[in-house]
Amino acid sequence: MACGFRRSIACQLSRVLDLPPENLIKSISAVPILKKEEVADFQLSVDSLLENSNDHSRPDIQAQAMRLAKKLKCDTVVSEISTGRGTINFKINRELLTKTVLQQVIKDGSKYGLKSELFSGLPQKKIVVEFSSPNVAKKFHVGHLRSTIIGNFIANLKEALGHQVTRINYLGDWGMQFGLLGTGFQLFGYEEKLQSNPLQHLFEVYVQVNKEAADDKSVAKSAHEFFQRLELGDMQALALWQKFRDLTIEEYVRIYKRLGVHFDEYSGESFYREKSQEVLKLLDSKGLLQKTIKGTAVVDLSGNGDPSSICTVMRSDGTSLYATRDLAAAIDRMDKYNFDTMIYVTDKGQKKHFQQVFQMLQIMGYDWAERCQHVPFGVVQGMKTRRGDVTFLEDVLNEIRLRMLQNMASVKTTKELENPEETAERVGLAALIIQDFRGLLLSDYQFSWDRVFQSRGDTGVFLQYTHARLHSLEETFGCGYLNDFNTACLQEPQSVSILQHLLRFDEVLYRSSQDLQPKHIVSYLLILSHLAAVAHKTLHIKDSAPEVAAARLHLFRAVRSVLANGMKLLGITPVCRM
C-alpha cells in the first residue's frame, strides 16, 4: 500500500530532519500519472516542509531540495532519488511495488485505500446526513435529484471511513402548501384518481388551486383557514393530510429503490409543529423575539436592525415557519443522536437560510451549532425528456432506461443479458451520476443527453463498460491463475502506470473526505479506466505464456476491484455484463 512506502520514506527523512515520521507522511504524495515527467512514484514538496519548520528566512527551495536529497540513501524500498522543482522524487523498487500493491488490493478488498495511514487516528464519529427532502403531495422533482445523489455519496463515504451515519429524509410535509392542497382537493379532487395515480393527481390539483388562489381571494382565504385547522389539530383536516403523506411516501420509496438509495429515518416538518412552539417560547424567554407591526415575530441576528439579518420565525396568526421547524428539528436530533456532525445537502439558494438557522442556534445557547454544516450545490439546466420539460424524476429514469436500451441494441458487442432493463438502468444511472459529479458541486451545469450517453470519453457508460469488460476477462480465463504471480512479468510501461495509479487511491479518498467533493474520485476512476483500456489492447492474456497470463490477470483483477469500490462510493452499482 502507498502507506507502507510513504512510511518508509518518512522514516528515512525523519532521521535526517530530526522530525517525527508522522509529521512527514502527509507531505509525501504519490505522483499523479498524467503529470509524470520522470518515473518517480512519490514526491516530497520541500516547500511544505519549510511551512512546518520555524525557518522563516525561506532559503532557495531548489538548493534546499538538492542538499536534502544528498543526505538520503537508496535502500530495499527506494531504488532511485532525484530532485525536481522544489521537490525530492522517489522511485520505488519495481518488483516490490508490483507485489505490494496487487497483494494489498486483493487482501483489503472493499477496504483498499481506506486503511491508509492518511486516515489513522481518525476518531469514529456520529454523523447525521439530511438529504433528498422532497415535498409531500408533489411528484419527485428533478431538483431533488442532485440532493439525493450527493447526500448518498457523502453518507457512503463517511460510512466507508468507519463513522456511524444516520441518513435522514426530511420531507416537506407541512406548511401553507397543504392549506392550498386541502382546499384544492375539496374543489377539484377525485378519490378514484387519487387512488390510481396519487402523485400525478395531487400535482394537477396543486397547479389548478394555485391559479385559482391567484385570481380569487376567497380561495386563498380558505387555503389559509385549512392550514390553520391543520395547525390546531382538526381531525378531518389531519386525516386528509395523512392520506396525502402516506400515498406520497409509498411512491418515493419505490423511486429510491430504483436509485439504489435508502434512508434510516423518514422525518418531516410535521414532526416539529408542536416543538416549534417550544422554540418560539425559548427565543422569547431569551429576549430574542421581536413583534413587527404586521404581527409577525422576527429575530434580529445583527442586533442593530439590519434588514438582511432579520429572520421571520412566526406568522401573524401564530403558525410556524420553515426556519422555526428547522430549529426544532436540529435540537431534537441533537437529543436523539448526540451527533458530532450534521450535514444538510440542499441547493445553494438555501445558503442564507442555513446561515441564519445555525446563527440562531448559537445565540439560543447551543454551542453544538458549529457542528452543523451546509453542503450547497448548483442548478442543473436543460434537463428535458422527449415529451418536453421535465418535472419528475421518474420521467428521467424511464428516459435513461429507454435510451440506454436503444444504445445497447445498436451496439454489436452487446452481450445477451438476463435482465436488459435492469442493466440499462444501472448503466444509465452511472452516466447521470458521473455527468453530475465531474465538476464542483457548487457549479451550475447544462445537462446534455448526448454527452451523458457517449460510450467513449469521460462518461459513466465508459466506466461501466470497463468494469464489465474486466469482469468478462476473469470469467473467460477463470481464477485458477490467481493463486500466485511473478512480479517480473509486469514491468511493461502500461503495467507500471496502472500500479502507480492504484498507489494513489488512498490520497484521492482522503481529498474527497476533506472537502466532500466527489469529482476527485470521478477523475481518478476515469483515468484508471483509460489506463485499463490501453493495457487491455497491449497486455494480452490469450496466447501468452501461463506465467505472463497469470500476472496480467492479477493486474486486471486489481483494476476491476478498485474501479468497483470507487463506483459504489459514488452510488453506482457496477454491472458485470453489457
Can you characterise this structure?
By secondary structure, the protein is of the alpha/beta class. The chain folds into three domains: 2-92, 2-Layer Sandwich (Gyrase A, domain 2); 126-289 and 318-381, Rossmann fold (3-Layer(aba) Sandwich), CATH 3.40.50; 394-570, Isoleucyl-tRNA Synthetase, Domain 1 (Orthogonal Bundle). 54% of the residues lie in helices and 12% in strands. It has 22 helices and 16 strands. The protein has helices spanning 2-17, 21-25, 46-52, 61-71, 94-108, 143-160, 176-188, 191-196, 198-215, 217-231, 235-259, 275-285, 322-337, 351-363, 393-410, 420-437, 449-452, 460-477, 493-503, 505-515, 519-538, 546-570, and strands spanning 28-30, 42-45, 78-83, 87-92, 126-130, 164-171, 265-268, 289-291, 297-300, 310-314, 341-347, 372-377, 380-381, 384-385, 388-389, 445-446. The strands form five sheets. It has a five-stranded parallel β-sheet, sandwiched between helices. Strand 3 (78-83) and strand 4 (87-92) form a beta hairpin. Helix 15 crosses helix 16 (420-437), helix 16 packs across helix 18 (460-477) and helix 19 (493-503) runs antiparallel to helix 21. The longest helix is centred in the middle third of the chain and has 25 residues, at 235-259. The relative contact order is 0.10.
C-alpha Rg (nearest Å): 28 Å
**General form:** globular
Mind telling me the CATH superfamily name of the largest domain?
Answer: HUPs
The largest sheet is: 5 strands, parallel
Care to count the β-strands? 16
Q: What percent strand?
A: 5-15%
CATH architecture assignment name of the largest domain: 3-Layer(aba) Sandwich
